[in-house]
Amino acid sequence: MERASESTTTLRLLPWTSPESKPCFLATDSEGGYLSRLADRMEAVQLATAADVLACARKVLDDPMSPHTEVRYAGIRLAECLSDALRVAESRGLRLSDDTGSGGAR
């Protein structure tokens, strides 16, 4: 006897926020859709940008003569990148939980 395939819809935390700075989720039953691929590319760009910003910030922070405004700018950019990286980590962690069956999206 054939079993009907079970379709499960999961929520994926996307790597961007709404205009009101609220989290955005994608309801999907597969990882291969257009928005999933777009989110994957966006996560890759965010992580690559974070690596670049970190390299630049280290140069500024390593120089004791760096002007206050450069240090402040570096700190602001680092905070933005950290926020993006934490969202990527949370999203990937939620998807890992879904894969192992031990949790799920909010």
Descriptive notes:
The chain is α+β, with helices and mostly antiparallel strands. It has one domain (12-97). It has helices spanning 34-62, 68-100; strands at 10-17, 23-28. Strands 1-2 form a two-stranded antiparallel ribbon. Helix 1 (34-62) runs antiparallel to helix 2. The longest helix is centred in the C-terminal third of the chain and has 33 residues, at 68-100. The protein is elongated and about 55 Å long. Mean pLDDT is 87; it is low at 1-5.
Helices and strands, with pairings:
Elements: E1 10-17, E2 23-28, H1 34-62, H2 68-100
Antiparallel strand pairs: 1-2
Helix pairs in contact: 1-2
Keywords:
13% strand; 58% helix; DUF3077 domain-containing protein; 106 residues; two-stranded antiparallel sheet
What would you say about this model in short?
It comes from Streptomyces ferrugineus. By secondary structure, the chain is an alpha+beta fold.
Major beta sheet, strand line-up: 1-2
Average pLDDT works out at: 87
Which shape, going by the Cα principal axes? Answer: elongated
Number of helices: 2
Helix content: 55-70%
> What would you call the structural class?
alpha+beta
Determine the N-to-C terminus distance. Answer: 35 Å
Please summarize the sheet with the most strands: 2 strands, antiparallel
Number of domains: 1
**Element order: H for helix, E for strand:** EEHH
Q: How many DSSP-defined strands?
A: 2
Instruction: Kindly provide the radius of gyration, computed on alpha-carbon positions and rounded to a whole number of angstroms.
Output: 19 Å
Oligomerization status of the protein chains: single chain
Q: Estimate the strand proportion.
A: 5-15%
Low-confidence regions: 1-5
Protein name: DUF3077 domain-containing protein
